[in-house]
Design goal:
The chain is globular. The protein starts with a strand and ends in a 6-residue tail after the last strand. The protein is α/β, with parallel strands linked by helices. It binds 5-O-phosphono-beta-D-ribofuranosylamine. 5-O-phosphono-beta-D-ribofuranosylamine binds next to helix 1, strand 5 and helix 6.
């Protein structure tokens, strides 16, 4: 089933990638993950993609003259595949401005906190949950947003909160938040594919139905 062609960019285990693959196949959605790109050759998400017969590529900036050259290689692969939506699922590299420009409001990222809390430079993976734990927040959560030039600064699409108990640790907080991520990311991708996301002044309106 073709429809929207998606590229998923990863750096790690790929549980968000897996959630997206499962959602597409369970619901028989009119979209395809055509390409998985990792900046790390040992990312288990690559194994997950290969198990589904999805084309994978490793673009490690250490093997390029500079970050921009690696970014341009990513852009080349995206355009060769006719990608309509880029999903960042635990991707730990910056997206070059040229890619953000070409794919304005067509790059979706999942972040493991309620942006703007614990977001921006230096806030990724377990560091986010360690900061939430140390601050003693009673609520944290997950955010899906469009990517712009500012780290974690793009228009917010969906958010969901979860309570943090005194007994929680950064690890148990991460487990709670991952459950939200695995639901929110596929939901946001479906809304995008249905043409139901309208961005105005860094705010996102979720349309009740497709406005043709
Ligand atoms: C998730 O916590 C996600 O929020 C963050 O990186 C992690 C990726 O996990 N961006 P996985 O590789 O999808 O399991």
């Amino acid at each position: 089933m073709s429809g929207l062609k998606i590229a998923v960019l990863i750096s790690g285990g790929g549980t968000n990638l897996q959630a997206l693959m499962d959602d597409i196949s369970e619901k028989q959605l009119p979209m395809t993950i055509s390409l998985i790109i990792s900046n790390r050759s040992n990312a288990y998400g690559l194994v997950r993609g290969k198990q589904q017969g999805i084309k994978t590529a490793v673009i490690d900036k250490a093997t390029y003259p500079d970050r921009n050259a690696a970014g341009m290689k990513v852009l080349q692969l995206l355009e060769e595949e006719g990608i309509g939506l880029i999903v960042l699922a635990g991707y730990l590299e910056m997206i070059p401005e040229e890619v953000v420009r070409r794919y304005r409001n067509r790059i979706i990222n999942i972040h493991p906190s309620l942006i703007p809390s614990f977001s921006g430079k230096g806030y990724y993976g377990e560091r986010v949950h360690a900061a939430a734990y140390s601050r003693g927040v009673k609520l944290t959560g997950a955010t899906v947003h469009f990517v712009n030039e500012e780290t974690d600064g793009g228009p917010i699409i969906l958010q969901e909160a979860v309570a943090v108990a005194y007994e929680d640790t950064p690890k148990t907080i991460q487990e709670k938040v991952l459950k939200l991520e695995h639901r929110l990311l596929p939901m946001a991708v479906r809304l995008f594919a249905e043409g139901r996301l309208r961005v105005t002044d860094n705010r996102v309106e979720i349309l009740s139905e497709v406005q043709l």
